[in-house]
Design goal:
By secondary structure, the chain is mainly alpha-helical. The chain has 8 helices and no strands. The protein has a single domain, classed as Alpha-lytic protease prodomain-like, CATH 1.20.1510.
């Protein structure tokens, strides 16, 4: 009698679970994936927004064109969190794919901006002032972007999200841009003012390479 009641309760419990389409105490995988994606995107967005905000203060002090280009990259990288966050929030595979395309487009735009600024410095040389502040801004930019790149890339691999992986590559590219600002400050301090546009062109080639790699990542998954 007791055994029958237990079996009946067991069947009733299973039927109750099947009726609701899930097992009590567990989170639906798609919801969990969405929350993890939003968390990764939100953290990286906060880091990059703070990084760009700190650099704005330094730019007002140093009036560096190189730092201005780095600011454009950092703000652009932070904005990539918007479409990715929406894609994860809506749990849309198609939206996530289009977010990946949007990220690749932003990387390409960053390359064009970096190349344009580098050419302009050859035509109209600009020597930055307060180089110590410029060097600090470069270090801040690198650290901020590297942290964001680690968060996005690891989350992208864990969630199998090509868009998030591509966004991590983008953040790492902007970290290289920030290192270019640091190198520019050091070389200008040594009297090599032409190093500023040369480093800009080298960074442009790196960004173009990452653009192609990110495009392959998004289209192959």
């Amino acid at each position: 009698m007791h055994s029958g009641e237990t079996e009946e309760k067991h069947h009733h419990h299973n039927g109750h679970a099947d009726e609701h389409g899930h097992t009590h105490g567990l989170v639906d995988p798609s919801i969990l994936r969405s929350r993890q994606g939003i968390k990764a995107v939100s953290f990286s967005f906060a880091i990059l927004f703070i990084t760009a905000g700190l650099q704005v203060g330094v730019f007002a002090y140093s009036n560096s064109v190189a730092l201005l280009a780095d600011l454009i990259h950092n703000f652009g990288d932070a904005l990539t969190a918007v479409p990715l966050g929406l894609a994860f929030f809506l749990r849309s595979a198609r939206g996530e794919k289009w977010a990946g395309y949007f990220v690749v487009l932003l990387i390409l735009i960053s390359a064009l901006v970096a190349g344009y600024e580098s050419i302009q410095r050859f035509i109209h040389p600009v020597v930055p002032i307060h180089l110590w502040a410029l060097a600090i801004a470069g270090i801040i930019g690198f650290l901020g972007n590297e942290f964001a790149a680690i968060i996005r890339t690891r989350a992208g691999k864990r969630l199998q999200s090509p868009a998030l992986i591509a966004d991590g590559h983008h953040a790492r590219v902007d970290g290289l841009v920030s290192l270019g600002v640091l190198a520019s400050a050091l070389l200008v301090a040594l009297g090599l003012s032409v190093a500023d546009p040369l480093i800009g062109l080298a960074i442009t080639l790196l960004i173009l390479r990452i653009t192609w790699q990110s495009w392959q990542t998004v289209t192959s998954r």
